[in-house]
Design a protein that fits this description.
single chain, 6-stranded parallel β-sheet
């Protein structure tokens, strides 16, 4: 099969012919149709230690068709269309059994780092990672939904706890995940303030439902937020970027009882930026504010998101698609922050 292979740390992805993966009794072989591409993959391949062994095929936002199942697989069959959860978990620890798979005590890494991923014509995945794609949802929509839409679903419902009438700040609201965060916050009834840099991303955020947009190049985000909220601040702030500057802005933009949610992070080892920010514990306590770390989703949340897509309650925003062999070009565009919305590889 054809695959984009990372042969060693720091190397570019290369198109190679490699053996089709073999499956175990609890796995299924998926013919990949589409694989999403976002900053998560870019950061993963560039962070020392994230990938334990090479060569490795990255890519975790997968949609495709089951072409073979292991002897113990019961929930999917040959011909089923599926997407995937991208954490490799045990399914048996207290966190997995309570719907907190992302905190698995026996975590084995991610699809695309702990095992080969979807930048290939075929991928072998554990049965517990597979979620059926409902009729009425395209492969492209499903691939994006598995992370770039599912992550906002969890962040808005479980972490930010957005209610109708809440003011919500989203920093990075025009990116591949942020553009779906804008839609999800609106779906929860929030008044969305999207902060971005670059006209294309700002206009995309507005087009997808942002009530107000903030151009971060035109002054401090906090001052602009306070001006838009009559000095009160926002009920929830969600940071998709994760620099020290944006995290501080999210914290300082909160109203009393506000909830700050951290989604994105830019490791200092990759970006050379210090991601730390300062919290005044006395003021933080006095205001009864909260900081939440939001770590992906569980399988049920992906299934719910697919229903939202099916019923047109939220739109998968894919601004550019590329053939498999252009994966390295996509990563370079993502490093330069040059893609508004989501990008995806059309594999077959």
């Amino acid at each position: 099969m054809r695959a984009m292979v990372l042969e060693q740390f720091g190397a570019p992805l290369k198109l190679k012919d490699v053996p089709k993966p073999k499956i175990g009794p609890n796995e299924a072989l998926i013919k990949v149709r589409v694989c999403g591409a976002g900053l998560t993959v870019v950061i993963m391949v560039a962070t020392p230690g994230r990938i334990k062994s090479y060569p490795r095929i990255p890519g975790h936002e997968i949609a495709g068709e089951v072409v073979e199942v292991g002897s113990e697989v019961r929930s999917v069959k040959v011909g089923s269309r599926v997407t995937n959860h991208y954490y490799l978990t045990c399914g048996n620890c207290r966190y997995c059994r309570s719907g907190r798979e992302t905190l698995c005590e026996n975590f084995r890494g991610n699809v695309g780092s702990g095992c080969d991923g979807g930048y290939a014509e075929y991928v072998a995945l554990p049965e517990r990672n597979l979620i059926p794609i409902p009729d009425g949802v395209t492969d492209l929509e499903a691939a994006v939904a598995s992370d770039a839409i599912a992550t906002p679903y969890h962040a808005c419902h479980a972490e930010a706890q957005i209610h109708p009438g809440d003011d919500v700040l989203i920093i990075g609201g025009g990116g591949g995940v942020g553009i779906h965060m804008v839609q999800m916050a609106r779906l929860c009834g929030g008044r969305v303030i999207a902060a971005e840099v670059g006209e294309e991303k700002l206009e995309l955020a507005r087009a997808m439902g942002a009530d107000e947009i903030i151009d971060a190049r035109r002054g401090e985000i906090v001052k602009q937020v306070k001006a838009l909220t009559q000095g009160r601040g926002v009920d929830a702030s969600i940071d998709m970027v994760g620099t020290g500057q944006t995290l501080q802005a999210c914290l300082e933009s909160l109203a009393p009882a506000g909830r700050m949610v951290i989604i994105g992070s830019k490791p200092a080892s990759v970006y050379g930026e210090d991601p730390s920010f300062k919290v005044n514990p006395q003021e933080f306590m006095r205001q009864a504010q909260e900081i939440h770390g939001s770590r992906y989703v569980n399988n049920e949340e992906i299934a719910r998101v697919l229903q939202l897509v099916k019923h047109k309650r939220i739109k998968a925003v894919v601004s550019r698609t590329f053939p498999l062999e252009d994966a390295e070009q996509v990563h370079e565009l993502l490093r330069k922050n040059a893609i508004a919305g989501r990008a995806a590889l059309i594999v077959s």
